[in-house]
Amino acid sequence: MPSSTHPLHRDITALYTTHHGWLQGWLRRRLNHAGDAADLAQDTFVRLLTAPAAPAEAPLREPRAYLATVARRLLLNHLRRQSLEQAYLQALAALPAPQAPSPEQQLAILQALQEIDAMLDGLPPKVRAVFILSQVEGLAYAAIAEELGMGLRSVKRYMAQAMAKCILLAP
Amino acid sequence: MSRAASIPLPPAAPLSREVALQAAEWFVLLHSGEASEADHRACAAWRQQAGIHESAWQRALAVSQQAASVPAALGAPALGRARRRAGRREAVRALALLLAAAPAGWLAWRAAPQWTATHATATGERREWRLADGSRIVLDTASAVDIEFDSNQRLLRLRSGAIYIETAPDPMAPSRPLAVDTPQGRVRAIGTRFAVRLEAARSQVAVLQGAVEVAPRAGAATRRLQAGQQTWFDPWEAAPAGPAPAGAAQWARGVLAVDDMRLGDFVAELARYRQGWLHCDPAVAGLRITGAFQLGDTDAVLGNLVHLLPVQVLYRTRYWAAVAPVDAGR
């Protein structure tokens, strides 16, 4: 569906004009950073424009509740990325200097981590742990079973579960 | 997570959960070290059965490769959910601590002396103190100094960063000499305003008023600098004095004043005031820049660059920015 004929466009334009300032304030109170709040407010409206199946009625009846729902999801995503980045910087800082990757490598690694983190988001902790031990740490399934104190069959089942989710979400 | 919030899949090839799980199970079997020749053949047959099977399989390989590209020492703690010999609960607690401690840890890495020095600043911070003798000091970003005053001398040991000093006449009699020590040597003040900056293997002094005497730690000769002069010194000798640029100690007032400076050097200078990583593309590093910039808001300085020079600033995250040519792709 070409987006220029999207029936909601007019409504979203109206939403933007009326509520953009409010949404940015709502986000700023939760973020303590004006720049990020402005970016996320923008992303929220972009998300509305690109969402294939936006409920036609909802935005008009409860515009702010609707905007907040969409924005909250983006906000959680943003916070998750931020906490990952901080943990990553911490891990970088703990590396002995000769092992530290170049700035370009550091950035590439962070981007890979963000993609992996997004794909693993929402999986149970055990499933997530199995995937990380296998794919990032390179442990064999038997070693993971011992590590996490679970059976080999569980390790394989969790691994398949995590990998299936990654396959579905991989870019 | 709803489909709308996830990464959109190619519409022509809807990948079902079922197929994804089958591909994942094949992947697990073939990587278990237990797969037989027959298993390998069966997997190959499954992949050939349908285009969508093969594409799911390729995705699995791509995901695996991507995960393997991350060094374990970085990936495991950052993804944060799987520490050796740590129960789930401990892991969660460790993660919480990790997150809470992250900014401090980052800072400690950038400038370890910060934690033990008597006077110190964080990255991006600039602070002023009035000392017991009435002298005024300003510490630049990520700087640390130990103030050691006793009955014989007024000693300031610079451990990182840069310091600006306006000496006051010593209230004690007989008056004690005031000096700044760096790992490379000693700068003795002679009624003066001056700044000392410490770099990896050398120190820089710029004198704004009065004079100083520079004594490299292991050198025989001292060198005297007058107002308007600056020099570098290592442990063996001080370079001949040259004219100090007009903006030499403007940082003490929160201003980075530069005259015809290479953009690469300018960006490196700016990076000292920012947390994280700021990079200058070599393609534009040779451009020249002149002006006075407020150090309190380096984001705004970067924002201004695009009006002054044919460059753009690429932000990957708040901690990663790069100054690049206008036509550079993402």
TL;DR of this structure?
By secondary structure, chain A is mainly alpha-helical. Chain A is built from eight helices and no strands. The N terminus of chain A is likely disordered.
What are the key terms here?
heterodimer, A: 171 residues, mainly alpha, Arc Repressor Mutant, subunit A, 2 domains, 0% strand, disordered N terminus, B: 330 residues, alpha+beta, Jelly Rolls, three-stranded mixed sheet, 17 strands
Secondary structure blueprint with pairings:
The complex is a heterodimer of chains A (171) and B (330).
Chain A: H1 9-31, H2 34-50, H3 58-61, H4 63-94, H5 103-120, H6 125-136, H7 141-148, H8 152-169
Helix pairs in contact in A: 1-2, 1-4, 2-4, 4-5, 6-8, 7-8
Chain B: H1 17-30, H2 37-49, H3 51-68, H4 72-79, H5 88-110, E1 119-120, E2 127-130, E3 136-139, E4 144-149, E5 154-160, E6 162-166, E7 178-182, E8 185-198, E9 203-216, E10 223-226, E11 229-233, E12 242-243, E13 255-262, H6 263-271, E14 277-280, E15 288-294, H7 298-308, E16 311-317, E17 320-325
Parallel strand pairs in B: 5-7, 14-17
Antiparallel strand pairs in B: 1-4, 2-3, 3-6, 4-5, 6-8, 7-8, 8-9, 9-10, 9-11, 11-12, 13-15, 16-17
Helix pairs in contact in B: 1-3, 2-3
